[in-house]
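I hope you will forgive my troubling you with a question about protein structure. I should value your view on which stretches of the chain appear to form regular backbone elements. Here, with my thanks, is the record as I have it:
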Amino acid sequence: MNRRLATILAFACFIAGGCALLVYRIVNTRLVAARPEPSVRVVAAAQDLKIGAILTPANLTTVAMVGSVPTGAILKSNDAVGRGVIADIYKGEPILDGLLAPRGSGGGLAATIPQGMRACAVKVDDVVGLAGFVTPGMRVDVLVSGNPPGAAGSVQNVVTKTILQNIQVLSAGTDIQKDAEGKPQQVQVVNLLVNPEQAEKLSLATNQLKIQLVLRNPLDTKVDDVPATAMGALFSGAAPSPHPVEVARRVSRPEPHTFSIEIINGSHTSQEKFSAPDAEN
């Protein structure tokens, strides 16, 4: 065979092989892209679930998820049935383990209390009217008003002091949810999420003093050093003083020793009183 012809044939084969390899790679890439990714079915909510609800099989469904599965996703319905909901879950949303209370802890308000915390009930006066706009999840400050220990029980000695700040509202009245329109409800009892030490303060204040709740912005988490305010400071403009005002007491002195002399002048008699020589002036 002519050497020149052989060279041409070898070069043609090389070109053909390169083109075939390029076509193979293009086709394979498109086939892989068109191939569906494997999916995993996870447990999801079949309807809107509210805080405190106990999950039943009717509340659950499954949805297919492509790609990575969220951390804490529940794959079996049996792992969710009978557990309480501690955060709102919406229809079609995958149910994560962190949104449910531990198994056996039940539902309702108790299931929403984090470990180490307490739910403390505070009675709200209708005159104050705060319960008219308080809803679960809001943040409040707790103020107490009354006479400090040792002070006379009068209006001028009344002092108001902030004892707790940035406290979360767990529930209002017997409900731990807003109404159907998301509006607050008129209630007389508000449950606050506090630690054991704060619960003791609230219990003592509830029995002895008048309590008022002050609503605050949920994004404002700063705790300020708020001095107490006395009733007298509202009118005098003086600096507030939570200490009782000392009242000077009048000290009675004993009467000085005296003696009397009866003077007889004819038919008239009279008496004259004189101080003893050692009597105080």
About this structure: The chain has three helices and ten strands. The chain has two domains: 36-112, 116-236. Helices lie at 3-34, 196-208, 231-236.
